[in-house]
Amino acid sequence: MDKSKKMVEDCSALPTGWKREEVIRKSGLSAGKSDVYYYSPCGKKFRSKPQLARFIGDAVDLTSFDFRTGKLLSSGVRKSKRLKNIHYDYNKGTRHDASLVLPIRQTASIFKQPVTLRTNHGANRIKADPKQDTKETPKQLFWEKRLNGLYACDITDDMLQSIDLPDGLSSIGPNLTDENLIQSLAAALHLCNYPIAGQTGSQSQLERNAGVYMNADQPPCM
DNA sequence: AATATCGGCGC
DNA sequence: GCGCCGATATT
């Protein structure tokens, strides 16, 4: 068989590193029919959607994934590349950005990997409703830096102007741009059901060791 | 033995 | 008709 490069293309609907291959049957009764295969980043070959689903588990929701075409099947798929990480949750009727599903580390591996987490020390935790407090999920510090370089746009693909940072608000943390802080605040307002108060630790503490003194539940600002 | 390819069952 | 996977061919 052909040892040169196979016709294997990157699959946009799956994590980076996954490949898709389509081979046409050239003989037999089913000549002309095609078979579709996928290759995981570690090289394992998959030849059916059930087989694929068993390996990726809950990491990716494949209900809207069409195995044959390799694309997300929905009535109106956005063609913009900027939106390719955004999937639609048909159960809840809400959009989900992969970068906002925080506790899952984003790697090329098909296996879910544990994320090293920092638990908030009780002393510097923001006071919150006890009922909601039990349901809180841990976050990575400065996770919103992953939002850098992403922009909102309207249906005509025109970029929306980001709003300016209000006076009296300063960002805390390494290389955090004003725009990134805006994104962080917007995400906090969207995701949190408790007051957004910013950081409460002293400035010098935060500068010295953000890993210890930062409150990951609050945006990196004060 | 491992992999590529086609057959064909079952939904 | 087609997805899926067993059966068979190929290396």
Task: Tell me what the structure shows.
Helices cover 16% and strands 13% of the residues. By secondary structure, it is of the alpha+beta class. Strand 5 (65-66) and strand 6 form a beta hairpin. The longest helix is centred in the C-terminal third of the chain and has 14 residues, at 178-191. The protein binds a DNA duplex (11 and 11 nucleotides) through residues 1, 23, 25-31, 33, 35, 45, 47-51, 67-68.
Blueprint of the fold:
Blueprint: E1 8-10, E2 19-24, E3 34-39, E4 45-46, H1 49-56, E5 65-66, E6 71-72, E7 86-89, E8 94-97, H2 130-133, H3 178-191, H4 203-208, H5 210-213
Antiparallel strand pairs: 1-2, 2-3, 3-4, 5-6, 7-8
The chain binds a DNA duplex (11 and 11 nucleotides) through helix 1.
